[in-house]
Amino acid sequence: MRCQMRGSILKVAIFVGGDSPERDVSLESGRCVAKALIELGHEIFPLDTARGGKLLPADQACWGRGTSQEPPELLDRHGHFHEQLFCAVETCRNQKAQVIFNALHGGIGEDGTIQGYLDLVGIPYTGSGMLASALAMDKTMAKKIFELEGIRVPRDITVYPDQQIDPGQLLNGSQPPLELPVVVKPSNQGSTVGLRLVKKMNQLERAFRAAEHFGGPVMVEQYIPGRELTVAILEDRALPVVEIIPEGGLYDYTAKYTDGKSRYITDPDLTADEAQEVQEMSLKAFQALGCCGYARADLRLSPQGIPYLLEINTLPGMTEHSLVPKAARADGIDFAELVEKIIALALEKREH
Length: 352
Known about the structure:
With 352 residues, the protein is of the alpha+beta class. 34% of the residues lie in helices and 19% in strands.
């Protein structure tokens, strides 16, 4: 689909980089999106939202890299990120961009902050709106909504920064108490940033402190043994299920973004009923949060064939090797078509 509803080549701004721990992944997503848009004939305006309103060079290799897994305050050493973001949006307006492809991941690029600002200034953007983005980024709140909708999720305990809790007593905070192994992770980060699997009690405090380091709440979640599955949602349809087989057994940040650390199966060995249930659960979660455009659901399938929803990612990776493009290819949609469809959905959302 070539955005034919517009009848002309589009001016597309691309937001990349930012100040979140996922900065380097965002830069790579942005490069791939930019390449696809150029091949499709669109005019692009790439902007690193942590660097203000100055356009990035045409040579995408010069866009730089970030330091993954760093707390945001270490990336934003000058403390002017919001000001830089406003400058980037003003550049979009001055360049008369017709739509923004938001290739940011995590932080205020994904938690509803940028979405709310763009709603105010009236520039269409890709992905979900302010409320859905905020809910999805807050894993604790999202899981409460999923449970209200009858969507199965692992049990968990969330500890907030002002709570004085001995990490050694964490597992007793749930009724019935959580049992090892558990997954410990920041409740407001994406892309498995800060995630650790705890199998022994003497590992719990260290994992908790590591997650606490990112600021915000810490979630301690019952680990579901079994298979790692993901389902991409495009518009109002679940794409084919993809199975992830991490080399070390845990799909953490390293397994996700290091070549060769994980295998991906686009035609996993699932029964028709299992595949259907996983897809329906993912689409229901997408709709429960009010998401739109595209997103990705992450799930675990227990050895008994019972699926558990882990989270919804409203701005999933958009590199050539990311999970949403893999699922799209399995559905017969190549990368350029996927990018164009996402932009078309953003423009349709604005019209409504």
